[in-house]
């Protein structure tokens, strides 16, 4: 249960960070069908601005910050697959509400 809460809090932090940088327009760029956190092109940062590594560098995000924002996994846990599923769930709910999701 606490691992799930940790994933949720990381994703909320990551979404809030991207909102602070781009406003909510970044959310419209995400294609949920192809979203895959393990892919440099199809992850949240890749779909937002071309490539995970380039985008992370452009934003000046350290590996620890990338983990804290849910943009990558935290030492293998949660798995990339569960992190991808959690991002998809978050983005589906936030798009239905047209605002940030408070509860997953």
The total domain count is 1
Question: What would you call the structural class?
Answer: mainly alpha
Q: How many distinct beta strands?
A: 0
Share in β-strands:
under 5%
Distance between the termini: 13 Å
Low-confidence stretches: 99-104
What does this protein look like?
- With 104 residues, the chain is mainly alpha-helical.
- It has one domain (2-91).
- Helix content is 57%, strand content 0%.
- It has helices at residues 2-22, 44-49, 52-59, 63-68, 80-97.
- The longest helix has 21 residues, at 2-22.
- It is globular.
- Mean pLDDT is 87; it is low at 99-104.
Helices and strands in order, then pairings?
Layout: H1 2-22, H2 44-49, H3 52-59, H4 63-68, H5 80-97
Helix pairs in contact: 1-5
Features:
single chain; mainly alpha; 5 helices; 57% helix; globular
Produce a short descriptive summary.
The chain has five helices and no strands.
